[in-house]
UniProtKB/TrEMBL annotation, chains A, B:
Protein name: Dihydroxyacetone kinase
EC number: 2.7.1.29
GO biological process, one term: glycerol catabolic process
Domain of life, per lineage: Bacteria
Domain DhaK: 7-329
Pfam families xref list: Dak1 (PF02733), Dak2 (PF02734)
Keyword check for Kinase: yes
DhaL domain span: 367-569
């Protein structure tokens, strides 16, 4: 859908006005015409590259006017060729005295209008060359390469031609390089959904839901095959195979590679695709030279993407990697600050945390801690589905799964740390980091903090006492609350944690042995967790679903009570620390 | 919709793999972690800027790792904070010995995880500063600015901080500059539609069709008002007013301005919006410093956009405009070729075509030509709706409207040229250029070519004869066919044009006076146009609708016959040229 527009009939003109306002340091409007030349005016003695075609393909054409790329851009209405008059005007304004190379994708309307404009310019004594781009494999056979349409590979061809002109090649030279780049460029695309014109309610064309249309043109021109949806690796394989099938004999393997999104396909999707494309190309002996993944030639909000490969020789590689500075495409001249010259190597060692010395006492406590973490994990596993159901009432239902992932990782990390001789602080720190890392979400980081806080209080050296454990849990719970910014009554795990802590500390300070005190405190935690059913959460996800959760206990409080109860069993079995 | 994915649970990891494969000259993976540092490793002695947050916002975070911007990027799952463990790892790998500044948008999960990581890094002796970005006006009042969320303004704040670090500021300095940039940054956004997670069938949230949700968060967090759709100028006014309402007293008017698209909103829409935003800002005394219009902070394929303004002082302006070289954002170091130094000015005169000398005879013929063009226009106007209906059967229905626009413009241009003393060639060339320019589409350029071709044969000096006119039309028709690449029987205007030309030339060559011959030829053209109803067009638009047009005459052939008939009347009234 198009949401931002005023008069649909004036859409293209409004785009031109907005573009000129945004990038005055790069471009200037040409009086009475539908396009731009470079802000400073044409460079005297330089061959001018003028690109053009229908609107709706930004950054195509206007987005690439600037140093090292185009000298002018001329835009027609949405998906319609600019008129010959407009092409004529932009070329005339862009002309620096050394001739004009016109570049556009191979569409009938563009060929007609650019040719008429070229004849008029020639009649006025301006030397003009025309190179239309024919990269789309799907639109004609290799025998009829000159009949192919121009799609995303236009970008590479234009970039190379712009760099050649900037380097000072003459008109013959720029034309030759551009034609060589075009002959070396092969694209194949896939469409997932059509695009919608401003003011229209329906897309210009449709792709059947659940289908992928291979070779569908960027204005909905027919494709070559329609297939059922396939996962990214299969899609990548199809694109790579099709493009590599036309690899010229002369290609030595170096290639400029583009994965181009057509508008509504997410950047993240393009990278997922590239994760499969890159190794396939490398396996086929292709050396990727400064690849680009992004939106370089769009088609309004069409969903789809394409792979373009331009086979490079030394000359084309030089122009492909040359600097450019335009509104939408800038490259090169990386100016690393001169202040800083030495890079530090990043290795596994960079990430190592020094292991602290530990006492025998602390290592004994670490044994108990490891069993507690293991029991924690077993408890979460047993109640995973129930916790998920509770969380699904007003959340995303992943509490059980997240806790399960975190607790398993914490158990492994605690065991590895304990076997490496870690004291109780080190073992709990390892468990904490793994819990927070693998559980994801707020529960993960909070449980990680809780374990880590207890460990920090107990240390790696001191003998662990009943009072020490109780106060360590208390101190950790207090830190947890500071981090989480939640208050009691907000329907979080804190609503079970603090009744537990108060009961535990009160009993241990009153002389009750830890195991007994913990068991009693776990009962208090369970009652408190049940009581959270009556509460309304203060902080909801996205569109708050807070009120839906009334009548259901908080899953975080419930898991805390279940875990506290289970750990009580571990402590009952543990050797008396005193 | 998400179309490209493999295992939805591994989506984020696949994105990381693809990104690393695409930009190895910019970034390297950090072993066992969910993010990147610069390819060369950290720069010794430089403050490191580490950015992070949930995935799904590319180019946020990873797309801006490089010279002059970020030193590291850490990514969580889609829309979920990275874990503290991941933040810790990336910061440790990115650390160059001069401390780390962490930057992220103000979300609870990010604040928690980055703080835990910071504590751990501090415990290991790495100095860390945290600056979270709070630019979203909609999410809290100005009194509670520190509670606001981070949205697209994060981009400017990160850019400025990255440039400050690259310039060699120490940890205090980078923290100070980043906090100043954040305090100076104000964003306000509007959502049109929600985004869809990989593997999901439904968007994560909805915006009611026909509505605009102002201030809706980039993960669907509640907005402040919902309004009916409004045109771009009204939308721009709303955004500008809201942002300018919080202009600080200290602001001198210079501002970095971003118009950011969230994913599915087209670039063209952003420019249409900017066309209204720029003048409103300028009227309010704002000086736009290197504005950017594009996708800088996305939210998967969410439809929506925002305006961000960062009020600049000399220091912030310097860092905002400083060079940067990253995968998705590059700026500065425009290397104009040293070969070319002088820019040519572009003025109205640049576009002027020299006016040819004309004879009195030719000016007399030009009078007839002007009347013919005027009658052409009146005829098209009379039959505009009918032509549109014929075209709508298998085309886009704009033949009547396009011809009407072109013919009106041609009439005006012919009159202006005639009044300026143009001969028949000059007058028809003016009519031709205007016709092709304003009519748009293929009909426009073909009619333009036809008029121009006749003029070229007649010239601006020679006396015009009956034979001259007939042969000029014939020659022009032949050139038209070469340009259009259509054949007879393809169901185009040629199917009426050639029977007309054949009849005209045959009769005139046989001695029939031009006016009589033209009238007879027009009858032939009308019969031929009617006969096109039986034909199937060879070239269709988009998904060919060719067969639907059988039974309907070609609108181009019909308009040609109508125009030929009407011009016959002009010739009958014209003075005998012989």
């Amino acid at each position: 859908m198009t949401h931002v527009y005023d008069d649909p009939a004036a859409f293209k003109d409004d785009v031109l006005v907005g573009f000129a306002a945004a990038y005055p340091t790069y471009v200037q409007r040409v009086p009475g015409s539908s396009g731009f030349v470079r802000a400073g005016g044409p460079l005297e003695g330089k061959v001018s590259l003028v690109l053009g075609g229908g609107s709706g393909h930004y950054p195509s054409y206007s987005g690439t006017v600037g140093t090292g790329f185009a000298d002018g851009a001329v835009l027609g209405d949405l998906f319609a060729s600019p008129s010959a008059e407009q092409v004529y005007r932009i070329c005339k304004a862009a002309h620096g005295g050394a001739g004009v190379v016109m570049g556009f994708g191979n569409y009938a309307g563009d060929r007609l209008n650019f040719k008429v404009a070229a004849d008029r310019l020639e009649a006025e004594g301006i030397d003009v060359r025309i190179v239309w781009v024919t990269d789309d494999i799907a639109s004609a056979s290799l025998d009829e390469q000159e009949k192919r349409r121009g799609i995303a590979g236009t970008f590479t061809v234009y970039k190379v031609a712009g760099a050649a002109a900037e380097a000072g090649l003459d008109l013959d030279g720029v034309e030759r390089v551009m034609a060589k780049a075009n002959a070396a460029t092969y694209s194949f695309g896939v469409a997932f959904d059509g695009c919608t014109m401003p003011g229209a309610d329906e897309p210009l064309f449709h792709v059947e839901p659940g289908q992928m249309d291979f070779g569908l043109g960027i204005h909905g021109e027919p494709g070559i095959t329609s297939d059922a949806w396939m996962p990214a690796p299969a899609l990548a394989a199809r694109l790579v195979e099709t493009v590599l099938a036309e690899r010229p004999e002369s290609a030595d393997g170096r290639a400029a590679v583009l994965v181009n999104g057509l508008g509504a396909t997410k950047y993240e999707e393009l990278f997922v695709l590239f994760a499969s494309i890159a190794p396939l190309l490398e396996q086929a002996g292709v050396t990727l030279v400064q690849p680009e993944v992004g939106e370089l030639v769009t088609s309004l909000d069409m969903a789809g993407c394409s792979l373009s490969v331009t086979w490079l020789d030394d000359e084309l590689e030089g122009y492909w990697t040359a600097p450019a500075d335009t509104p939408a495409y800038r490259r090169g001249a990386a100016t690393t600050s001169e202040r800083f010259t030495r890079h530090l190597e990043v290795t596994e060692e960079t990430l190592e945390t020094p292991v602290a010395e530990s006492s025998e006492d602390s290592r004994a406590a670490a044994e108990v801690a490891r069993r507690a973490v293991a029991v924690l994990s077993a408890t979460v596993e047993e109640h995973k589905d129930e916790l998920g159901r509770l969380d699904a009432i007003a959340g995303d239902g992943d509490h059980g799964i997240g806790m399960s992932r975190g607790a398993k990782a914490a158990t492994e990390a605690a065991d590895a740390s304990g076997e490496a001789g870690g004291g109780v602080q080190t073992v709990l720190a390892a468990a904490s980091a793994a819990f927070g890392d693998k559980a994801g979400g707020t529960s993960g980081i909070l449980w990680g903090l809780l374990l880590d806080g207890v460990g920090q209080q107990l240390g790696d050296v001191d003998r662990v006492t009943d009072e020490g454990v109780a106060h360590a849990v208390q101190s950790s719970a207090t830190r947890l609350q500071e981090f989480s910014k939640a208050s009691l009554g907000d329907k979080t795990m804190l609503d079970a944690l603090f009744p537990f802590v108060d009961a535990l500390v009160g009993a241990v300070d009153g002389g009750t042995p830890l195991a007994q005190a913990w068991r009693d405190a776990a009962v208090a935690a369970t009652e408190a967790a049940d009581a959270t059913a009556a509460l309304v959460p203060k902080i909801g996800r996205a569109r708050p679903l807070a009120e839906r959760s009334v009548g259901t206990p908080d899953p975080g409080a419930v898991s805390l009570a279940l875990i506290a109860t289970a750990i009580g069993g571990v402590l009952a079995d543990a050797p008396d620390p005193s």
